Amino acid sequence: MAKYLLVSFKTCPWVQRAAIVLREKSVAFEFRHIEPDNRPEWFLAISPHKKVPVLRIDEKVSLFESNAIAEYLDETVPPRLHPEDPVARAINRAWTDYVPTFSSSVTGVAYASDEAAYNAAAGKIAPAFEQLERALQRQSAVGPFFNGAKYSLVDAAYAPFLQRYFFLDRIKPLGVIDRYPRLKGSRH
C-alpha cells in the first residue's frame, strides 16, 4: 500500500474533505500541519499553488486541490464513493463543483467585519441550503446521504462546511438549517 502524507493548516475545511475520504476508505496516512503565515520550504517545493491540501504519495508525487485528491483516492482505493452509473457519477461530480459557492455562502458570517456585513452574509445561507435541499430530495428517497444510504464524495465535500455552519450556529444562532430537514439530517 502507498504511503500517504496529508499536509494541512490546522483548520482548513478543504483538507478536511481529503481527510474524510481517507478515513472513509480506512487508509492510513500521516497528517502534518503547517502554519499559513510560515510555510516551510519543503512545502513550497511540493505544492504548485503554495496552498493546502497536498497529498504526498510515497514521497514522490504531490497531488493538490481537494477535489482532485478525492477523485484520485476514489479511483485507486476501494470502496468506491462515487456511484458506478456514469450518469449518477456525473451528477455527483457536478454537485462537488458547487462546493466553493456553497462554502462561501454558508460560512461567510464568520468573516463579517460588522453587523451589516454579518446580516448580508447570513442572508446568503438560506438560498445555498435551499439549493442543496432540493438536490437531496431529487437524489435520495431513503437515507441521510446524497445517494441515499451510501456515503459519497458529495457528502465528504459538504461535511466540513456544514460542520462550520453548526459551529457558527451555536455561537450566534442562525436557525436556518431547521427549515431544511434533509440537509440537517445529512451532517454525519
Can you describe this structure?
The chain is an alpha+beta fold. It has 2 domains: 4-76, Glutaredoxin; 86-185, Glutathione S-transferase Yfyf (Class Pi), Chain A, domain 2. The chain has 9 helices and 4 strands, in the order βαβαββααααααα. A 4-stranded mixed sheet has the order 2-1-3-4, covered by helices on one side. β3 and β4 form a beta hairpin. α1 (13-24) packs parallel to α3, α5 (99-107) packs across α7 and α5 packs parallel to α8. The chain is flat, with a radius of gyration of 17 Å. The mean pLDDT is 94.
Main beta-sheet annotation: 4 strands, mixed
Mean pLDDT: 94
Shape: flat
Q: What is the ordering of alpha helices and beta strands?
A: EHEHEEHHHHHHH
Tally the beta strands. 4
Q: Indicate the CATH architecture of the largest domain.
A: Up-down Bundle
- Radius of gyration from CA coordinates: 17 Å
Strand order of the largest sheet: 2-1-3-4
Helicity range of the residues? 40-55%
Low-confidence stretches: none
User: How would you describe the oligomerization state of the chains in this entry?
Assistant: single chain
The CATH class of the largest domain turns out to be Mainly Alpha
Keywords:
188 residues, alpha+beta, Glutaredoxin, Glutathione S-transferase Yfyf (Class Pi), Chain A, domain 2, flat
